Each structure stands twice: as structure tokens, then as C-alpha cells.
Amino acid sequence: MALLGTLINKFGKIAGWNSVKVVMLGRQVEGITALSYKDSKEKDNIYGAGEFPVGRGEGNYKAEASITLLKEEVNALQLTLGSGKRLTDIEPFDIPVMYEYKGLVMKDVIRNVEFTDNGVDVKQGDKSIATQFTLLPSHIDWNVAM
Fold first, then answer.
1. Residue 21 domain-assigned?
2. Strands annotated E in 71-103
3. How far is it, in rounded angstroms, from Cα 103 to Cα 114?
4. 8 inside domain
5. Hey, which end of the chain has fewer CB within 10 Å, N or C?
6. Shortest CA distance to 57 belongs to which of 70, 48, 46?
């Protein structure tokens, strides 16, 4: 099987944290320190006669995501919600994630995201307060056209 593409930036700039842009609820997120997202599909070998698989079965699709935000970013989100509302009250929303390479932008979209938890973890010596939030996406669109 021939490879259709090659390394985009061979011996040039490689995507790093400073080339990632995350948009959440209509604004570019600045107080973000980590983002993780992945998806998977259940696949199993199906056995019949003999010792080797005779085929494969497929099951459910699953998407997972988490985001780590500075307290100031969380405060900005809370202020848009109004008094007494929680992050877990936010309606499902998409998170576009862009990776920029010298004018070329690759885009993934984490779809129908909801916060599933909220909290704060701070201790003596911390110079910032960052909290990891578990997100519940419906699915992830990879390499979306711009």
C-alpha cells in the first residue's frame, strides 16, 4: 500500500502547543494548559473453525475528551452563565481545534461536548490554579475542511 502523503514540515517547524488554537463557546480559549481527545471503535476477531479468526465484528464508537483550564478561564465561563449556574449546565457545544503550519491550518472538531464535572485543586506553592475537566463528546470529526 503506497503512502499518499509525506511529513508536511520535513525538517521545518513541527506542530507544538504554541501552534494549537482552541475555540470554546464562540471565543478563543487563552487560559488552557492541556487538551486531550481521542476516539475508538470496538473491534474483535470472530472465530469459527480452526485457530485463526474468520472475520471481524464491530461494536460501538466512543469519543473521549478532557481540558485543563486556568481558574481565570473558568471564572470567565462562569460569568457568562450567570449566578447559580454550573459548568455542567452548559448545553452541548462544539470545540474546534486548529493546528497551524506556516499558513496551512488543520482542523478537528470535538462535537456536542458537555462538562461532566467541576472542581478546584489548589495547594501551597502553586503559582497558578489549573483544573482538569472531563468532557463528554458525541463524536470527533478529524481533518475538517476549513
1. yes
2. 93-101
3. 31
4. no
5. N
6. 46
**Beta strands of 12-122 (E only): which ranges?**
20-24, 27-28, 32-47, 53-70, 93-101, 104-115
- Domain extent, residue 70, equals 17-38+57-141
pTM of the model: 0.87
Cell of 17: 502547543
End-to-end CA distance of the chain: 28
93: left (phi over 0), alpha (psi -120 to 50) or beta: beta
pLDDT in tens, 35-65: 999 999 999 999 999 999 999 999 999 999 9
Residue 110 DSSP SS3: strand
Q: Within a domain: residue 48?
A: no
Check: CB of residue 88 under 8 Å from CB of residue 119: no
CATH code at 23? 2.30.110.20
Longest dimension (CA), the chain: 65
Q: Domains in the chain: how many in total? A: 1
Q: Tell me if 4 is assigned to some domain.
A: no
Cβ-based neighbour number of residue 95 at 10 Å? 22
Say which residues have a Cβ less than 8 Å from residue 11's Cβ, sequence separation at least 6. none
